[in-house]
Amino acid sequence: MKRVNWGIIGLGNMANHHLKSFEKSKNCQLRGIASKNSQKLKNFRKKINIQDIFCSNNYEDLIKNSEIDIIYITLPNSHHYEWINKCIDHGKHVLVEKPITENLFQLEKIKSKLLQKKTSILIYEGFMYKYFPQIKKVLDLVHNNEIGEIKKIVSNFGVNLLTKNYFYFFKKKKKIDKESRLFNKKLGGGSILDLGCYPVSFITMLLENLNFVNFEDYQILKKNVEIGETGVDIDSKIEMKVNGKISIEISSSFKKNIGSTTEIYGSRGSIKILNTWTGSPNIILKKENDKNIISFDQIDDIYLDQLNTISDDLLNKNIGQSLDNMLLNMKIIDKWLN
Q: Most Cβ neighbours (<10 Å): which of 176, 200, 258, 300?
C-alpha cells in the first residue's frame, strides 16, 4: 500500500503527541524531522527510526526534500505564516497547528499566493476533533433536522492555568513562564488563539454544514476580554447573532475551568457534547420530553483519524479542508481580539 511521507518542523509537545499516531497509521509514515534545538532532535530520534538524511537542524532543508509529501508545522503561532509560505514555495502540502495564522491579513495573503500560483497544494488546520465520529454524528443530527431550526449555540474551552488549590479552599497563584508560547504575546499567545479558536471553528463548521448561503452575516453583540500580566488575553467571551436569528456564545479561558462543552439548541430539542475537543463518549440528545444518550467508544488516539484522513486526501486527490472556512474563523477571531 502506498503511504504518504510526512515531515515535522518543530519538535515540541504536539510533535511528540503524534508519534503513536504515525506508528498506528497504515496510509502514512513520519519520514523526516527538523528542529533548531539539537537536543530535541536527538531525543526525538530515540523514539522513532528515521534516517540521518531526513533529520535536520534546518527547517528549509526538510521542506526542500523531494521525498517529503506534506509538512506538519508545530511551531508557535507567530511562525506559522512564514513557514506555510515556505512550504507553498517548495510545493509541499501543509498541516499546521491551530490557529492557522495569527490574524486574517496573513491568511488572506496565503490565499492570494495559492491563487496566483494556481497550485493544487492543500492546507489543513490542526483541529483534530473535526475527524471524530462523535462530531460527524452531531453534524448529521443537525443536518437531518432532528432538533429543528437552530436557535442558539454555546461552546466553551477553558482551563485554569493561573492558580492551584492550596490548603483546603485557598488558592495559590502559579508562577507563569512569560516566555512560553501560551503567555508570550510575540509568539501569538493568549486564550483566544490557543483555545477560543476551537469553538469558533466548530460553529463555522456547523453553519457551513447547514448550507447557510450567507453564514458570514454575523453581528457581534458583546465581548469581554481580560488581559493578563504578560499582555495576552486570559479570560474571554463573545456573543454574536448569525443571520439575524442564531445566537452564539463562545468562551475561552486560562483563568477558569469552564470545560469543553458545546450545546446546540433547536426549535424541537437540543444536543449537548460533554467533551467536544478530545472526544466525549456520550452525546445527549433531548427532544421534547425524551432524553437519548448516544454513546461512542472513548477515543484512545485523538490524532489518528486526522492523520489518516489527510493522508487519504493526498493519495486520492481529494479537495481537503475549506480555506474559506478558515478565513471566516480568523475574521471572527480578529474581531474578538481587537
A: 200
